[in-house]
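2.7 Reproducibility. Because tokenized structures are sensitive to small changes in the input, we list the exact sequence used for Prolyl aminopeptidase, including any N-terminal residues retained from the expression construct. No trimming or masking was applied before prediction.
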Amino acid sequence: MKIHLGGGVRLFVDVEGAGLVPDGPRMREKPTLICMHGGPGFDHAAFKPAFNQLADLAQIVYYDHRGHGRSDARPPSEWTLDTWADDIVRLSDALGIEKPIVLGQSFGGFVAQRYIARHPGHAGKVILSSTSHHMGLERKLAAFERRGGPEARALAQAFWSRPTVETFDAYWAGVRHLYNTQPAADAEAGSRTLVNLDILLHFVSGEKQDLGLLQGLDKAQCPVLVMVGEEDPVCPLEDALEIHDALPERWRQLARFPGVGHGAWRDDPAAAFAVLRRFIAE
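Resulting structure tokens (single pass, no recycling of outputs):
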């Protein structure tokens, strides 16, 4: 379904699980988990079907960021972190969600970090999964070289320094398999993803180059879980540790996953979903 946010903007939204469930003589309200996908330029499909195992604990709201996937196309002037972060509030208002648990995966974690800075009192909890706070090019290049040698480093440097259709195609074909340490449990997941390469190239060549998201994390007013695979080349461990350290000590939690790459729930689903279930249920 498409949800109107105002101003002619509509986001594609899908919901899994009931929000109200029978519990003896009453109806119990489950928390709402809002899942924000990576990219930019991708859609929410990568969360499915893995995240349906959390539907007993929370009502899950998946959506495609403004301009992405099945959401309405929007002009490049709206392809900004501020706009995408504010959309979490707009979407929550449109759906009547109070104190959501907001999960940002990769680029979705960029959005979630900006959301913390701009709307620190809005969330009930935040999960920052496999994400970074800056470009951190040298750190990325070193990680790709460790995982795939000099050729992987060269492909990564070409794309992240000079993002074009050509450099991205070569990068994706040459290093995508290095993002994770285990074979994909769902080999067809990638083919189900809708991709808008224009948004990806716009963001990487623009806002991504000077990204600085640590400022504002100290405003957090709710529990924030940072999840990181220790072998993630594109959002390295060091980035996650710096994000964790920038959060208020009383609110921050860290979950490290040895031998795991980008998206702990892909490479070690048992461990990752156990962490998620504990955090949601706390």
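The CA atoms of residues 149 and 223 lie 38 Å apart.
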